[in-house]
Amino acid sequence: MVKVDYQNYSEYIHSAEQCKCGKVYPLSIAEGYQHGEVYVNSLGNCKTALFWHYSGFASVLGEYDESFLEAVYDIILDKDKINPHRFILFTDDEQTKSFFSNRESIDVERRYFYEYNKAINEAVDLPQNCELMPVDAELLAKIKGRITPYFSWDNADEFLSKGKGYCIVTDGEVAAWAFSAAVSSTEIDIGIETQEKYQHRGFAAIVSKAMIKYVLEQGKIPVWACHYKNIASAKLADKLGFDKVAECFVIKRKED
Description:
By secondary structure, the chain is α+β, with helices and mostly antiparallel strands. Helices cover about 25% and strands about 30% of the residues. It has helices spanning about 15, 25-30, 65-75, 95-100, 135-140, 155-160, 205-215, 230-240, and strands at about 1-5, 35-40, 50-55, 55-60, 90, 105-115, 130-135, 165-170, 175-185, 185-195, 220-225, 240-255.
């Protein structure tokens, strides 16, 4: 397996477009919106490619065999502890799923994918003492949580120049936020989180609607994804007007 020079990533746009599960992630790499890595069997061969996004989400696309999957398996295990990011493979291919299901230290789960196909969402009423604000450098520094822009963007300047986010500020705190977790020429994947003490107040819906409006105004499709056990996220997607369009297997290393 050979790593492709980032200057040649655009040669793999067509391959990324074939992805059926979260294609915004491989496209964001191939189109140069976000950081990530592309690996192939040999340079100049665009038929097989592994896309590994900064967030850790990965896709194997094209014509590949077991030897290529063996190399992917080595990356997942990372026995030498050399990989800087996690590795979570998305696939809808049964044979790929079967290959990894029989491997040591591997978990196979599922993930749901949604698209928004409605009109621009309605206005929202903010609770008292709350303000909906676009994420700037000052607010970005205040966002603390598990799903934040730093989850999928290499640095603050990159996010602020190529991404977008909205947050609710109350009592001087950033209570909830929604942001562009992945960006391509046609789609933007929305990531959200609410601080635990501010949950169950409708904040997630408010910031998500702000992001949906922004994405539609860019002429792109808002997309959403969640782990199959994340019932709260699935319910919110439905409430916001997203339609489930796909699901895939999630292949990752078992947690210690």
